[in-house]
Write a structure and sequence with these properties.
Rossmann fold, alpha/beta, two-stranded antiparallel ribbon
Length: 249
């Protein structure tokens, strides 16, 4: 069986593309890191791939705001391709800076405006957090997850703000919430590292095929990547990537 191809677009300042490629390879996919300029030159098209994965980092040095220029590139250069891929139900994921870019591009949450604003306390956060997958969200990305997972965060602008968060909640569009020891963080720092209302760490669009989240699940797909209180926690996020890969085989 041919491994699904995953497009990982790379911009200046992107620095998690290698980690993301490694995660998808571990999940049985064939990831390809392609510079935006190569995509713009037509050396590859989104229609050549079965999954789109926008990685984290500091695209363009986060000029004009986190993910803003990358989001503008996605719409300006590849808007037609993105629309076509969305219509064709291509799974998409944006992580950290990639999440910010998908929000800027209007793909997330997909039914209303939203932004990722400065962390409440105004500081860059870089450490491990716990994420609880939302039980009511039936996204293909979450089908392999039924327990909280640990993974790192690394962001200064990660506070999710939607004009009508209640509407996102009502359609089960929240994908992950910040938690501690299996329980909701309820806005408490440091379990909720950025002050997101409702402890929202990630959301899906109305189709459930587009996922964005601030933490980095690609950095916890192998057992060796995390040791908690003297015990290995087992590559808890691999199921996130494996679920999407299985859905497009």
């Amino acid at each position: 069986m041919t491994a699904p191809r995953v497009l990982i677009p790379v911009a200046l300042g992107t620095n998690r593309d290698g980690d993301l490629a490694e995660a998808f390879a571990a999940a049985g996919a064939a990831p390809e890191r392609v510079p935006l300029q190569a995509l713009r030159a037509g050396e590859a098209r989104l229609s050549d791939f079965q999954i789109l994965a926008v990685p984290g980092g500091f695209s363009y040095g986060d000029a004009l705001g986190a993910g803003r220029l990358l989001g503008l590139d996605l719409v300006g250069w590849f808007g037609e391709q993105l629309h076509e891929a969305h219509q064709n139900e291509v799974p998409m994921i944006g992580i950290c800076n990639g999440f910010q870019a998908l929000v800027r591009a209007g793909l997330l949450p997909g039914d209303q405006p939203a932004v990722l604003a400065d962390n409440d306390h105004g500081r860059f956060e870089c450490r491990w957090v716990e994420l609880a997958p939302e039980p009511g969200n039936d996204s293909i990305w979450l089908s392999g997850l039924d327990e909280p997972i640990r993974c790192p965060i690394a962001h200064g602008e990660g506070r999710f703000v939607a004009e009508a968060l209640a509407d996102v909640e009502a359609r089960n569009g929240v994908a992950f919430r910040y938690a501690q020891d299996g329980q909701r963080a309820h806005g408490e720092y440091p379990a909720n590292p950025n002050g997101s209302a409702g402890d929202v760490a990630g959301v899906t669009d109305p189709t459930g095929r587009v996922l964005g989240l601030m933490p980095h699940p690609e950095n916890h797909v192998f057992e060796r990547q995390d040791i908690l209180r003297g015990r290995r926690t087992g590559g808890q996020a691999l199921g996130l990537f494996a679920s999407a890969v299985a859905a497009v085989r």
